[in-house]
Structures are given as C-alpha cells and as structure tokens.
Write a structure and sequence with these properties.
By secondary structure, this protein is mainly α. The protein is built from 5 helices and no strands. It has a domain of 132 residues. Keywords: Membrane, Transmembrane, Transmembrane helix.
C-alpha cells in the first residue's frame, strides 16, 4: 500500500501534501468550532467603544447633563438667597429707622417690637446668606467632589424644598421646584457614577 495511491482511503486527499491536515479543517487535537481563548493571565478586554463611561473604567470623564443642570440650579438658588438676604437686611434697616422716629419714641410697645423685629430680621438675613454660600460651595464641589458632596446636595435639595413649602410658600415656590430637581438629578444613577468615580480621572 502506497501513500501515493489515489485510491488509498488512508492517505491524504488529493491535492494535499502528506503529513498536513486538510485546509479549512482543524488537525488532530483541535476541537472543531471552539473559539480560540486568550492566553493564560491575559484577560480579553472589550473594545474601547464598548466599555462603560467612554472606555475608562471607574466612572464618566464628563459631567452628566443632570449633574450640570443641578449645578446651575444651585447657583440660581444661591443668587436668589443673596437677593433675599439683601431684602431682609433692608427691612431690618427700615424697622431700625422707624424705631428712631420721633413720633414713636414714646411708644414702649412699638420700641420693644422694633428691637425684637430688627434682631430677628438680621438673624434671618444671616441665615439666608449662609444658605446661599452653602449652595455656591455645593455647586463648585460638583466638579470634583465625592459621594459626600452628592449626599449633601440631596439633603440641601430636600431641606430647601421643605422650607420653600413652609413657611415661605409664595416666595419659596421657585426654591421648591429647583430644590426638588436638584435632589432628583444628583440622586440618579449617572449622578452616583459621577460622584463615585476615581478622583484622579478628573
């Protein structure tokens, strides 16, 4: 029996040199249809376009639109707080000026009320201004803050919304709407991913 015999069933197919597997088919020891696996110790990474957050593991590289909107709303609330503090301070000055009015100097009850009212108004003005400064700080920290800033922004939004409903119902309506949106946007999944990302990626 010769390997060169074309009728030999144990020889290579015609057109194939002896000792080589047929083209298009795996040789002995290779499972048919099994995909090739990466080498040991080298996990195969997905293509850059299919990785989460634009190909960088650990978080998005660009601030999500919801967080950007929440940041702008924090600055808007801060501006409204500053305007409110100025108006309250003007009211306190007006009460102090009325207290020094010659016609009301002898009115003991008015003088006591004016002292109390002016003190309360100055205290409220300071608190409103401090809340505005806190809003500015949160807005600035949205760029590179961690999960603590996210939680603080959510608490800020909830408290501002509650205070906008009561006691400042009429003038607090804008605050309430903006504060609810801040809490929602910062609390979303993309907001969580932004604040929890590794800070070296900023």
């Amino acid at each position: 029996m010769s390997f060169g015999d074309p009728n030999n069933p144990y020889g290579p197919p015609q057109g194939q040199p002896a000792g080589y597997p047929p083209q298009g088919q795996p040789g002995y020891g290779y499972p048919q249809g099994a995909p090739q696996q990466p080498g040991y110790g080298y996990p195969q990474a997905p293509p850059i376009g299919q990785q989460p957050y634009g190909g960088y593991p650990g978080g998005p590289m660009e601030m999500p639109g919801g967080v950007k909107a929440a940041r702008v709303m924090l600055f808007v609330i801060a501006g409204l707080q500053v305007i409110g503090a100025v108006l309250i301070a003007i009211s306190a000055l007006a009460v102090s000026a009325a207290k020094n009015n010659a016609d009301l100097k002898d009115d003991v009850q008015f003088q006591q009320l004016a002292d109390y009212s002016a003190g309360v108004l100055w205290g409220v003005a300071v608190a409103v201004l401090a809340w505005g400064v806190f809003a500015i700080w949160l807005g600035v920290k949205c760029a590179n803050g961690g999960s603590g800033v996210r939680i603080a922004a959510m608490v800020f939004g909830i408290l501002t919304a509650v205070l906008g409903i009561y006691p400042f119902v009429v003038i607090g309506l804008v605050h309430t709407v903006l504060a609810i949106l801040i809490a929602v946007f910062v609390g979303k999944a993309d907001g969580a991913a932004w604040f929890d990302r590794p800070k070296y990626s900023v």
